[in-house]
Each structure stands twice: as structure tokens, then as C-alpha cells.
Amino acid sequence: TSADSTGMVPRSYVDAIGQGVIKLHNQAKVATTVNLVATASGVDNEKTLTGSVVPLTIDTELLVLNDRVVVKNQTTESDNGIYTLTQQGDNGSDPWVLTRQSDFAIVLGSYAFVTGGSVNKNFGFIQYEDSPTIDFDPIRFTTFSAISSFLGKDGISILANEVSVDLDSSCPLV
After folding, report:
1. What is the pLDDT of residues 58-106, one digit of tens each?
2. Residue 154 CB contacts under 8 Å (≥ 6 apart), including other chains
3. Which of 37, 127, 146, 155 is most open to solvent, judged by the fewest CB atoms within 10 Å of its CB?
4. Nearest-angstrom CA–CA distance, 156 and 162
5. Residue (of 115, 14, 146, 126) closest to 72 by Cα position
6. CB 51: neighbour CB atoms within 10 A?
7. Cα 79 from Cα 42, distance rounded (Å)
8. What is the pTM of this model?
9. What does each C-alpha distance from 39 to 58, 102, 171 come to in angstroms?
10. Which residues share a beta bridge with 164?
11. CB 126, CB 25: distance < 8 Å
12. Beta strand pairing status for 39-41 and 141-146?
């Protein structure tokens, strides 16, 4: 079962998380923000997504060989998963190719943290479908965690979890 229109997830997802059933995958450089225009072929850890000859950029990051990607926005949801860039587009005749990772077994609670991008940086994504059959059933990720950072300005300083306000005459409260 999947999340409904309000983002509610099935009880099995909540139960699995509560029981500590999180399958941690290696971190990814980026996560998709839109459907990748690509042709899918192969199965399991030999599944590939092949795109255009233009170098692949996802979430404002130009990828390099072996970068890991959480693919989470494919229209054909069974193509979602964790991939590695195995061939970069060369602006000539060679297209970019993403290949599903050897740790491709995506199960309820599969989790990957994203380290780059302008939208998904510092977010963790978790797969919430109960026991999907790879290549047949939808693979759906949702945000599970996020690291936030804040910057202080004009009389406000932030150090770790402490926020301080300097209320001198140069910074009056309005």
C-alpha cells in the first residue's frame, strides 16, 4: 500500500520503522526532483536508465562517474531505485547511463541520505512500499529526515542549538 493524497503512509511502514527495520544504503550525491527522460532496460542490478548525450545534471549537480543517485520521480515507478552513473553524456554520441546499484534490493525501510543538490541536499529518503517486487511494483520514496542549518544576521547569532539576540541600540526590536 502507498501514501494517500495527504502523504499518510501505511501502518506497516510505521510499524517497521518503530521496530528498527531500516535498511541503510550508502549515501547518494543527489536525488531526482523530476522524471528523468530515459529509456529503461534490463532487470535487477543490471537495470539501466539511458538518457541523452548531454552530461547528466540532477538537482543542479553535474554528475561524475560512480556518483550515486536516488531515482524517486520516474513516471514508471518500478524504475525508481538507487543508481550509479556508469557513463556520462559526452555532448557527442555517447549518452549518460545510470545503472541500478548492486545493493538494489529495495525493501520497506530502505534508506539513503543525500549529500548534494540545491533541493534535496541533507535530506534522507526512505522507501515505504511493503515488499515491492523489483521491476514490477512501484518503488516509492518519501522524505524521512533532514538536516537544517540557519545563519544569524544583524544582532542574531546562532551557535549549535543556541540562538542569541543582541538588543543594543543598533538592533532595536520593531
Report:
1. 999 999 999 999 999 999 999 999 999 999 999 999 999 999 987 766 7
2. 171
3. 37
4. 10
5. 126
6. 17
7. 10
8. 0.74
9. 17, 20, 57
10. 157
11. no
12. unpaired
